Amino acid sequence: MGHSMGEGRRRLIVMDVDSTFITAEQIDLLATRAGTGEQVAAITERAMAGELDFAASLTERVATLAGLPVQVLAEVRAEISLSPGAAELVTAAQARDWPLALVSGGFHEIVDPIADDVGITRVRANRLQAREGVLTGRVAGPIVDRAAKATWLRAFAAEEGIDLIDTVAIGDGANDLDMLAAAGLGIAFHAKPVVAAQADRAITDGGLDQVLTWL
């Protein structure tokens, strides 16, 4: 049988969050509340197109959130919708006992409850530092960047005893490129041109559940 993607093989599916698992960019929604929405959205756009270093640009964007009360995180979370087909993909994977993970340049404070709602237990994201109920404008701990996403894909595969050839990564931005390259199947989802060009497959219209047709 070798390494063909045969029926009945367990897969690991690792997904980016912003503009992939959810329709929005978390940092842009937060920045809108801080009054820096347009400035931050422009930086996000350039970072996702691969024109800026992700970690440096994230630090710059988070700095504009200094002074926001932490309850804003819950407000933003309430505004977020899953991408079309996301819930269906999760349900189908869970029915097959395929592990799922979310890796995000966004924030645990927003992603964790969304993941909990759909029963995804593996989440790696950034944390926003807060003091006395207010965001400091800093990220706490190391930033989940392009290299980290690929590292986590490999770590989750090893934990589950799943060969890398049987891993699937889905993303839309330049910070997903290493993860898409490391996976057995890298899928670009409504992605930036640089990402669509390097992925094994691309979804250009329709939802995340299209992934199932390739497995």
From TrEMBL:
Amino-acid biosynthesis keyword on record: yes
Top-level EC class: hydrolase
Catalytic activity as recorded in UniProt: O-phospho-D-serine + H2O = D-serine + phosphate; O-phospho-L-serine + H2O = L-serine + phosphate
One Pfam family named in its UniProt record: HAD
Pathway: Amino-acid biosynthesis; L-serine biosynthesis; L-serine from 3-phospho-D-glycerate: step 3/3
EC number: 3.1.3.3
GO BP of this protein: L-serine biosynthetic process
Gene Ontology molecular-function annotations: L-phosphoserine phosphatase activity; magnesium ion binding
The keyword Transferase is annotated on this UniProt entry: no
Obligatory cofactor(s): Mg(2+)
Alphabetic keyword roster: Amino-acid biosynthesis, Hydrolase, Magnesium, Metal-binding, Serine biosynthesis
Catalytic-site annotation from UniProt: 16 (nucleophile), 18 (proton donor)
GO cellular component, one term: cytoplasm
Family: Belongs to the HAD-like hydrolase superfamily. SerB family.
NCBIfam families: HAD-SF-IB, serB
Name of the protein described by the UniProt record: phosphoserine phosphatase
Organism: Ruania alkalisoli
Gene of this entry: serB
